[in-house]
Write a structure and sequence with these properties.
51% of the residues lie in helices and 16% in strands. It is α/β, with parallel strands linked by helices and 244 residues long. Strands 3-2-1-4-5-6-7 form a 7-stranded parallel beta sheet, with helices on both faces.
């Protein structure tokens, strides 16, 4: 039975991905900072799918050595890790220069340093196995620089996309790399009313379909984000300012 490792799995998109991959029959290796929530999710999934194995671990992705240890322990337990979904991240932020430097720094550390730790640990396992599927979550915000509280977040998610692209260009034998570029999907990090926002379950279902197809890069949901992206790149800054 194939095994999927999901970080940031205690809530939001990560928890819903765990539910949907469980429904497809995958064994699960779930990790996040909030252990109690992870345990509740494990109980829920095992209750719905008694034959599945679900392992959990508390993990702060900004601790690179801890990430490596947790990933390796999962691999040793299951014998193999078929897919790693590097979902853990932060969406907090404040306009630059307005006193929110610590908040912005925490977001960049989580989304950049934490993502690098996850990718390093995952690809180390995949190189030793000779195969594997790495999935990273970027954001539509990474398509163009964003103003205000989104500035540091958008820049951090651009790093994620570029890191994954570099791995695809390298062409590690047996390694598939998928970059998800979500638009507005309702979650704990995204509760404000926004245009084109979709609920968590259908939004994640779109993500899971792309992951299962092993697409290299995809906007999710495809409509309207795949159509908006090329337009968004060429709009003048004055118009981008009004739209974001």
């Amino acid at each position: 039975m194939a095994t999927v490792l999901i970080t940031g799995a205690s809530a939001g998109l990560g928890a819903e991905m765990a539910r949907q991959f469980a429904a497809r029959g995958y064994s699960l290796a779930l990790c996040a900072r909030r252990g109690e929530r992870l345990e509740r999710l494990r109980e829920e999934i095992v209750g719905d799918h008694p034959r599945l194995e679900v392992q959990i671990a508390v993990l702060d992705v900004t601790d690179a050595e801890e990430v490596r240890t947790v990933f390796r322990n999962f691999a040793d337990h299951f014998g193999t890790i078929d897919r790693v979904i590097a979902n853990a991240g932060s969406g907090a932020g404040a306009p630059l220069g307005t006193g929110g430097a610590e908040e912005n720094r925490d977001t960049v550390v989580t989304n950049v340093v934490g993502m690098l730790a996850q990718v390093e640990a995952a690809v180390e396992i995949f190189r030793s196995q000779g195969r594997g599927h790495l999935v990273v979550l970027s954001s539509f915000a990474a398509v163009r620089g964003m103003r205000g509280a989104m500035g540091a977040y958008a820049a951090s998610k651009a790093f994620v996309a570029t890191l994954a692209e570099g791995l695809r260009i390298e062409g590690v034998p047996g390694l598939a790399v998928t970059t998800l570029v979500p638009g507005y999907i309702r979650s704990e990090m995204n509760t404000r009313p926004r245009p084109f926002i979709v609920d968590t379950a259908p939004g994640v279902a779109a993500m899971v379909r792309v992951i299962e197809a092993r697409r290299a890069r995809a906007y999710v949901p495809r409509w309207p984000w795949a159509l908006l992206a090329p337009l968004f790149r060429i709009l003048p800054p004055s118009l981008v300012r009004k739209l974001t």
